[in-house]
Amino acid sequence: MPSPIWLFDLDNTLHNASHAIFPAINRNMNTYMAAVLGEGGEPADDATVNAARLAYWKRYGATLLGMIRHHHVRMEDFLREAHRFDDLPTMIRAERGLGRLLRRLPGRKILLTNAPRRYSHEVMRHLGLHRHFAKHIPIESMHVHRQLRPKPSKQLLRKLMAKEGVSPRRCILVEDTADNLKAARALGMRTVWVTQYLATSPNHTSLAGKRPPSFTRRPAFVDVKVQSVRRLPEALHRLTSQSDCSHHR
Question: What gap in Å lies between CA 158 and CA 244, rounded to an integer?
Fold first, then answer.
């Protein structure tokens, strides 16, 4: 059987973005959005901004897409303002041994992230993981027919498979975001859900309300649920043995 193509998410999959990076991005986003959503020179209030940010994230998979579609912002402006950090390297938290893990996994690895190019390159360089990836696809590269189509876009995933010349069954998406996994599974890809950082993710906790969200149950569209990407080698046999199951269409 041909070796798999691994599609890895970045934030809250390969590192703990919930620790400091996501809170900073959300603060930056809120400041930028307050100015855009405000009226008469006055910024919009926190409740208005938070509601819009979460609604667009939930509806489109990326707050950016909602801001482009409904408020005509420029992608470059939004990404620049949302990813302003005083000292990004000090904010990064990740497990040790991820490079050794990636070397142990057979097949080609592609970074597929809704994060912008400059930020994701800097994180991957800091983690020393960039050398393990054959390709890096940030949000700026997620255009289909000149329209921005970030994850969970099925059009994006189809375009990627066509460009790579591979069938869905050869692809394994490794992600923390359930909607992205659901879209990939609907196309016939294999899916791995990484859950260890979800309980502290600002977006997930906001959507769940005051109660912490539960990630104990494995949804039907998830082939393998792991706490950490470090558990992937031991889960490999479950992924490969399911590759020819009839429910992968």
Answer: 19
